[in-house]
Design goal:
Layout (H helix, E strand, L loop, with lengths): L1 E4 L16 H14 L3 E4 L12 H12 L6 E4 L8 H9 L7 E5 L5 H11 L2 E7 L4 H6 L9 E5 L8 H12 L8 E4 L5 H11 L2 E4 L16 H12 L4
Parallel strand pairs: 1-2, 1-8, 2-3, 3-4, 4-5, 5-6, 6-7, 7-8
Amino acid sequence: MTQVCLNGSRGAADGAPVPMSPGAMADSAADAVLAGATDIHVHPKSPCGQDTLSPRAVAATLTEIRSRVTVPVGVTTGAWAEPDPAARSARVRGWTVLPDHASVNWHEPGAEELAALLIDLGVGVEAGIRSGTDGAARFAASPLAPRVLRVLAEVADTDPNTAEDTARALLSELGRSPHGRPVLLHGEDGGAWPVLRLAGRLGLATRIGMEDTLFLPNGERAVSNAELVRAGLAQYARPL
């Protein structure tokens, strides 16, 4: 599986190719799927371009994207979009259009309760386990762990010279198939491409897109998520 991460917490200052409106996200998603993406992760945005869990924004984003693609579509539930755990859960309860899956960062306050709520709503949970946090230990002890859709092994090391080693350490901490759940391995910024290539060598699911990097493997600025997906598929299949 190759997931495209359309925008992340990036904003207008990161350039025109980062999709910000529901229509732009839908266009970008459709092009990325044509390029080979099989799953979508997106951050709905407020009118001022901030990540939001607002039911209205989530509904508009999902409706627009689903009008253009038939692959699963997931959203963030990151604490930066709503820092208070109770308010974050209240936002999710108010969703009138549900995503196929939602990422929950296991190191954030309220992660367990939010994941339980999403599961009760019938939304798949991507358990975000970020390197350098206590997420892996908390996930290992969680009674919800066997019920998540998959584990997002998220490598925070942006140094291309060390990101692969950090990824291997995170995978070792998690175990190859934690609680029997599949693993999606990805990096970010300078670590995005080394970690994606490692995922290819290990046969793990991965993701690429403008949330994770704005640049192609050759260092040139990407013009679209579709271009990143095409490059990602080529890098994933690259021999040792």
